[in-house]
Amino acid sequence: MISDQSLPPQNIEAEESILGGILLDPEAIARVAETLTPEAFYLQAHQTIYRAAIALYEQKKPTDLMTISTWLADQELLDKVGGKAKLAQLADRTVSAVNIDGYAQLVLDKYLRRQLINAGHKIVQLGFDTTEGLNLVLDRAEQSIFQITQDRPQSGLIPLSETLLETFDQIEGLYYEDQLPGINTGFYDLDSMTSGLQPSDLLILAGRPSMGKCLGKGTKVVMFDGTLKAVENIQVNDQLMGPDSKPRKVLSLARGREMMYWVCQKRGVDYRVNESHILSLKASGSEGRRVHGEVVNISVQDYLTKSQKFQQRHKGYKVAIDFPPQIVPIDPYLLGLWLGDGKLGDSRIFNIADEVIAELGVIAVREGYRLSHQPNGDRCDSWNLCAGENPEGFKIQLRRAQLLDQKWIPLCYLANTKAVRLELLAGLMDSDGYYCKDMQCFENTQKSKKLAEQIKFLADSLGFRTSIIRKQGSIKTSNFCGEYWRVRVSGNFEIIPTRIQYKKARNYASMRDWQVTGITIEPDGVDDYYGFELDGDGLFLLEDMTVTHNTAFGLNIARNIAGKYQLPVALFSLEMSKEQLSQRLLASEAKIESNRLRSGRLSGQDYQKLSDAIGTLSAIPIYIDDTATLTVMEMRSQARRLQAEQGQLGLVLLDYLQLMEGGGDNRVQELSRITRSLKTLAREIKAPVIALSQLSRGVEQRTNKRPMLSDLRESGCLTGDSLVTIADTGEEVPIKDLVGHSGFNVFALNLETWKLEKAPVSKVFSTGVKPTLELTTALGRKIIATGNHKFLTLDQGWVRLDELKEGDYIANPQILRLGTSDVYWDKITSITPTGESSPVYDLTVPKLHNFVANNIIVHNSIEQDADLVLMLYRDAYYNPDTPDRDLAEVIITKHRNGPTGTVKLLFNAELTEFRNLARNE
């Protein structure tokens, strides 16, 4: 039972024994100096005496009775601790210092318990404080406990002399040990420039999305909901269909110009790609390490360099896909019959096959229709499903589905279960389908191109071999000539539930796999390409279900650190699953191409390499969290727990920054808060933190594609003649004339009060030469900025210039005070490209993050919290003929404590592996 009068935990006798031992034995202080701080002692007098002993020890002086009493007297502290009598008493009560280590643990135990009590009181107060959000309260509570067990950086004021002594000791140790002060990344040229990764540092590793997966304009891809979308219309966060019938999320977009090629498929649609595009092919036949059916991902450039034998043995391939069940308004077989043998504007079906008529009778009974037969003389009789027990006849259902006056297949049928799609295809084949026994295929002819393309899509999605051609037809008796479309389908017909006996086709007799097809590649000149980066394995489907492809420097660093130092590495992956990360690590470690691992096409030799790699990686302390909606606080909590369980961490890796949940409306400011939190985490755990990041699309628009530090900022830039209002003088100064200056005030909008306030500028800088747009408002105000510069809108918050449109309202500073707000909403009248690239600039306003330029309120650039910023660049992506085809550059664009520059590495795309470049390469 604890009463309010209970004393905090303490062990006075142990404290006295420690101090007495220090006075008796000059070597004793060395045994406890690293364990105990003065604050660990309960009595103030004991803290003072121990602090004196530590000060003498650091000066390499003895800690005997005379020396300590003299030091205390010089500091006018001797009387406060009880005088020489107190010191003599401590020495007399101690027999020896032999057990001083044990006494230190007793004192430390009581000290930690007192800290725990203090933390408990603080947590109680936090629990009663309802002004803070619960997540923030939980994080602070956890941090209070975490501080007790960790060697925290000293947050108070300490003398420079102490820091200088520690720094000198570190330098001296490095001199004698001849090693880097930081943690080696495993890339020696990079380590040479950075001195290794430093504890407590935040490192940003950035690059454009994985290069080489772009298609020509107009190429259609399959979305996860079953719709088709042209590549130029794909947006970030769209979901594409993967070959495993699972979604692939679009993480970012890529645009540019490059040499384009036609990929011509013998049994599939032709499609247009850039030369960096990754083809996904299947090996035909076994040879060497390749086995039949193995998937090979290879760029168009590399494919063209391969032998004719390789090209003949590696083919394009398609897959069948699955969709979740959906409710359909009309029986799928019935709809297929009507689409083939029905009449526009009418619900009658013209078919005389006994099997079809019998099936219509079954449907009528099941759906509550009345089956009506209408003889038609010399012409084909018709059948109709009229209202019966079901008060709505077939015609009403067709009208409600918007089918009566136009034949087409609603999406709920095309993107449905395999059973529903097969029933629909059976109805089409039992009506308009002609079975050609000689060619072992079905032909379906339609006047409507849209319906023909939908039938082809339906058959493609089920895994059949298909083709579609345009034909000209004529009727001699009526002199009619018209255009129609013929769809040809072949494959495993026994799965199609046709009712007509003679249309129950036999299987495709050829042993050849109809889902693979030979390809040829033909050049088509330089043109625009459109691409995107996908999560997961990057594979997606073209409109005919052809599979195509859409790397891992940070992962290489993590593996090197965990392997060399045996220090735990925490890997937080918001993009890839832990299985996918494991597969990448295995591919790199075993030197087996990642696509062969994914397909399971391994030789006996591969299995041995894989077994060895699993054994090696299993002994490496890498820990993975693949929570897709991770927040900064959750990440910090996980890292703290891992350190508490495993000891000192070697690295924390986040993949990647833009996917981290923040909870704020302004994404630019939110990312700034996230990076500050990551920097705090690095200091807490005394380990480097690497955050992977994506660069802005501005890189693609420059002549020089090498990334710069400004590409990392999620904010845009203004041309040099943009006038910035100086708050203290009212003077308007071109932003280019402010470069290099700081500390002056500008006007910035406080979004909480909607008032303009004076706010200091911390930095003004140039961000290079970039394409620009000119914005004009109804008041005649104009400003020229990059497309990614953000403006404050009336209803959407901060919006990029290239996402604004005429008629939107943006915030201007209000000259006449007509209300409580300092903002006037001005209408955009035009946004036009300037047609040229211009030198552009930006500045940073801490806290408020905006300023007034050209009498328009614009967003500012966010200051970087990172100690080290690395950019990845591959010249081969932009310059296919470069001799550096297999090289990657690591560009150090910011280094708080050292030089910047460029490091070259070898990159193996098949293994997603970076390697050191030999000195003579």
Question: What is the gist of this entry?
Answer:
With about 900 residues, the chain is an alpha+beta fold. About 30% of the residues lie in helices and about 25% in strands.
Key attributes of the depicted protein:
921 residues, Endonuclease - Pi-scei, Chain A, domain 1, 31% helix, DNAb Helicase, Chain A, single chain, 5 domains, alpha+beta, Rossmann fold
Please tell me about this protein's structure.
The chain contains 24 helices and 42 strands. It has a 9-stranded mixed beta sheet with strand order 23-22-24-25-1-39-40-41-42, with helices on both faces. Strands 2, 5, 6, 7 and 19 form a 5-stranded antiparallel beta sheet that branches. The protein has 921 residues and is α+β, with helices and mostly antiparallel strands. Mean pLDDT is 80; it is low at 151-156. Helices cover 31% and strands 27% of the residues. The chain folds into 5 domains: 12-149, DNAb Helicase, Chain A, CATH 1.10.860; 188-206 and 552-694, P-loop containing nucleotide triphosphate hydrolases (Rossmann fold, 3-Layer(aba) Sandwich), CATH 3.40.50; 214-319 and 515-548, Hedgehog/Intein (Hint) domain (Endonuclease - Pi-scei, Chain A, domain 1), CATH 2.170.16.10; 332-503, Roll (Endonuclease I-creI), CATH 3.10.28; 715-861, Hedgehog/Intein (Hint) domain (Endonuclease - Pi-scei, Chain A, domain 1), CATH 2.170.16.10.
